[in-house]
Amino acid sequence: MTPKRFLTLLWIVVTVGLFTACSDDDNSPDLPPSQVEKTLLVYMPWTASESTDSGSLYDFFLKNITDMEAGIVAQGGLGNTRLLLFVSRNAHDSHFIEVKYRQGKCYRDTLQQYSGNKYVSATGLAALLGKAKAVAPAAHYALLVGCHGSGWIPKDADNYFGTRAFGGNSPNYRMETSELAEAIRLANMYMQYICFDDCYMAGIEVAYDLKDVTDHIIASTSEILNKGLPYRDIWKQLSAASPNYAAIVASFYKYYAQSYGTLSVINCQEVDATAALMSHINTLFTFNNAQLPLLQKLDGMGQTIFFDFGSYGQYLCDDSEYGTLLREQLTKLVPYHTHTSSIFTDLWRVNGGFSTIPVNTFSGITISDPTTNTYLINRKYLTAWWKATH
Questions:
Q1: pLDDT tens across 21-80, in order?
Q2: Band (7; pLDDT cuts 50, 70, 90)
Q3: What pLDDT was estimated at residue 114?
Q4: Percent of the chain beyond pLDDT 70?
């Protein structure tokens, strides 16, 4: 897959100037950091491989960060929020940066440089989170993750259409959502939200892995075009003490209404109730694989992996009361979501030739329970979601 058309955007700036320290006040004394209302950490791991930059999303960083800074300027500063960035410039060099605001402009202060790729391990990322917590203690924390993404698909699934859990183009630059959850637990840094500007991360398997470390997940069920999220428009909400998630979704739709895209806000406090209901439903109903072609597909795979959860529930439960119960539960699980009339896939070279998918049914979250994908069918049984509901 090339980054030309879609593939998950990163939020960060990566020009030479970005990595030059430019403190607001180089002569200020070292004082203990004071707590702010909210700290946002933007985590941007390397998105290619160790030996090549093929698949790197580097070229898209500048516009994203410019838009984010434009949002900061538009609201007259950061308010009681601090913005930290972790950016991998290449396979070997990463920088930890704080964005500051003064007299109508944003400035970037490089706080630390990193080498290697320890940040893609649970302990390595936990150390980075701990650094952020020490530098910018806050009442609330939020995490924005920008890279390639493919939901719950394991990071060692090499050569499978170039997919990855999330991260880069080789296993040693990828992480799985269970590892992300472990890193957050180790850092004792519960998140107000985790926002994925990555493909295929709005899935129930992802939500189940992250349900105990964040209140909300902002993500797409499908592929994200290379422009990514409309940062200038949504910055006010991303940085707010109490984000207006409905406004984020509305801004996304306005931005992409004439194009392609989906965006969802998942309430992780409803994941356990959803799992309990599905566990019971699975004791009563068995999906008829003959109905597989009738389900709403939300990926570009030749053999679908990510199906719309609501569509699956409709066919699984027929017209029973459990179908109604599941629909009601999904509205609690995904209170805000949006989609265009069709979605784009860059996998047309390997999926038989289709590049768009009509969206007729949309609940805002995917499920892979019914997949018969020959490469991954046995992998789905290993997810924490499957084990909790079967």
A1: 333 333 334 456 889 999 999 988 766 666 777 667 767 777 888 889 999 999 999 999
A2: very low
A3: 87
A4: 84
d(CA 280, CA 285): 9
Q: Model-level pTM?
A: 0.90
| Amino acid, single-letter form, for residue 197 | D
Query: What does residue 180 show for φ and ψ, rounded to 5 degrees?
Result: -60, -45
Spatial separation of the C-alpha atoms in residues 296 and 136, rounded to whole Å? 43
pLDDT digits (tens, 9 = 90+) for 121-153: 899 999 999 999 999 999 999 999 887 788 998
Whether residue 259 contacts residue 235, with contact meaning beta carbons closer than 8 Å, is answered with no
Reduced 3-state DSSP string for the chain: CCCCCCCCCCCCCCCHHHHCCCCCCCCCCCCCCCCEEEEEEEEECCCCCCCCCCCCCHHHHHHHHHHHHHHHHHCCCCCCEEEEEEEECCCCEEEEEEEEEECCEEEEEEEEEEECCHHHCHHHHHHHHHHHHHHCCEEEEEEEECCEECCCCCCCCCCCCCCCCEECCCHHHEECHHHHHHHHHHHCCCEEEEEECCCCCCEHHHHHHHCCCEEEEEECCCCCCCCCCCHHHHHHHHCCCCCCHHHHHHHHHHHHCCCCCEEEEEEHHHHHHHHHHHHHHHHHCCCCHHHHHHCCECCCCCCCCCEEHHHHHHHHHCCCHHHHHHHHHHHHHCCEEEECCEEECCCCCCCCCCCEEECCCCCCCEECCCCCCCCCHHHHCCCHHHHHHC
Q: Which long-range contacts (CB under 8 A, 24 or more apart) does 241-245 make?
A: 241/37, 241/38, 241/80, 241/139, 241/140, 243/192, 243/193, 245/216, 245/218, 245/335, 245/336
Q: What percent of the chain has pLDDT over 90?
A: 68
- Which among 342, 345, 346 has a CA at the least distance from the CA of 361? 342
